[in-house]
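Appendix B. Chain record.
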Amino acid sequence: MTIQFTNNASATLAAAINTTATSLSVASGQGAYFPALAGTNYFYATLVDASNNLEIVKCTARSGDVLTVTRAQDGTSARSFVAGDKLELRVTAAGMNAKQDTEDFNARSIGTGGGLTGGGNLSADRTLSIADLGVVTAKIADANVTTAKIADANVTTAKMDASGVTAGTYGSSAAIPSITVNAQGRVTAASTSALDLSTKVNKAGDTMTGALTLSGDATAALHATTKQQVDSGLSSKMNTGAVCGGTHLSGIHSGFSNGQNRYFYFDSYGRMTNCNCHCDCDCCLAVSQTVQMVDGTLKAAADLESGDLVLTPIGPRQVAYASIAAIKGQRLLSINGCALTSNHRLMTPSGWKPAGDLVVGDALIEGAVISIEDLPCDETTPVVTLAIECCESFLLPGGLVAESAKPIKE
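Structure tokens predicted for this chain:
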């Protein structure tokens, strides 16, 4: 912001102004007598009427013959003026004081202070620079020097205090590094400690002797577990009384009882169970036939296990057992796309009916029989007997309600 002058500038008002006007116009072409202003530059001018009453104004902008002014300057009061009154650039106390302030550069200077170089009085441009090692930790506010404020490659080794740490590489396959970092992120100490591998076990090809104590039970599939957790898990499984814990064909073994072919099922814990499933079973599904699960998915009958939650007409119920045996002596039918034995009963509006007694068009609990198909099978074709806890039925795809086997083992 610098005050401006021109010699003997004088003009007459082109129009009257009142005491609050902040813009005034002079006669055409006379605005050029006054300084051109740019940025924050300004000049003082004096308004004079015919009675020699005057007011000093501060002009902060001029566009041709139109001046923008601040009224009542340098101890004068705002007055009204008429067209023809004078506007002159006179010497004023405010103008002289402002000029003196801007010219007194030699009396002022910039001190460098600690850590800086350059400076001097203001008679010329001055450059301040940071001396090498001039910025110490105590002069930097926490977190104030960020990456964005440091030009690439400007902080060189020569400009940093030594940290006291010996330059080198710390840590190896036989030594553990120990590093100390201060609050400013500088490494202030570094050392190594020998790594004792004499009591360690290699991940591969090594043998451990003695007991290994774990901090708790395993919580994921590949976690190591304790003998206590294994014993507890086996004990709880052995005491559940579940008839069948799985439905894998590899767990089925045949035998004979009373002239009939029976199948003994071994669950995933090595227990032999007999699910009373033999050649005259009435409630069997094809091993690939799916059943409606509580979570909205479908699961093949052969994959069902005790405890699985299936959908029934009265809500979620657990599978008591799911055993696999040969079909022997029955037909395997597809009713509306669901594969089951001919004696397996389905719920209809008039009660339970064996699948083999249904014909196309017969009503079901939901909809009607729209297709019946004989599926290929022989006496060795495996089928699944499904028993549901506390419920006599379960849901198949398409809304079919199928009868559950009785959850009783011999």
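Further analysis of this model is presented in Appendix C.
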